[in-house]
Amino acid sequence: MVESIQANKPKFSLIIPTYNNRAFLIQCLNSLDNQSIDKKIFEVIVVDDGGRSDISENLGLMGSQLFIKYLYQKHKGPAAARNLGIEKAKGDIILFLDDDSLPTDDWLKATIEAWEKFPILTV
């Protein structure tokens, strides 16, 4: 299993652009909170692409073990939101999720195992 290189540096950064999709986003984050791996090896970056509602309050109330970084930008679209997430990511490996994704409990573990098995294919 991949471990974080430094104590405060995650190995993976999961970037989730969102736009006025709070209910699905919370479900997505709950799915990530249920991942079968150590939460310390990844960070979650939620990029609010100019939505009408303030989702940052909901993120603080989740009570999850995830490290969630919340970013806000004026509405520029999901590509710009992903690019902002990349700029702020601390992980060595970047992963993207849509806000309406519901990853299974072993999704990240399987992704890491595939990356470890075939690292040349993911560069």
Helices and strands in order:
Layout: E1 12-18, H1 22-33, E2 42-49, H2 56-61, E3 68-73, H3 78-88, E4 93-96, H4 107-117
Parallel strand pairs: 1-2, 1-4, 2-3
Q: In the CATH hierarchy, what is the superfamily?
A: Spore Coat Polysaccharide Biosynthesis Protein SpsA, Chain A
Provide the β-strand percentage band. Answer: 15-25%
The structural domain count equals 1
Rough outline? globular
Major beta sheet summary: 4 strands, parallel
Quickly give the structural class.
alpha/beta
Number of helical regions:
4
Provide the CATH topology: Spore Coat Polysaccharide Biosynthesis Protein SpsA, Chain A
How are helices and strands ordered from N to C? EHEHEHEH
Helix content: 25-40%
Biggest sheet, spatial arrangement of strands: 3-2-1-4
Number of strands: 4
CA radius of gyration is 14 Å
Architecture overview:
With 123 residues, this protein is α/β, with parallel strands linked by helices. It has one domain (12-122): Spore Coat Polysaccharide Biosynthesis Protein SpsA, Chain A (Alpha-Beta Complex). The chain is built from four helices and four strands. It has helices at residues 22-33, 56-61, 78-88, 107-117, and strands at 12-18, 42-49, 68-73, 93-96. Strands 3-2-1-4 form a four-stranded parallel β-sheet, covered by helices on one side. The protein starts with 11 loop residues before the first strand and ends in a 6-residue tail after the last helix.
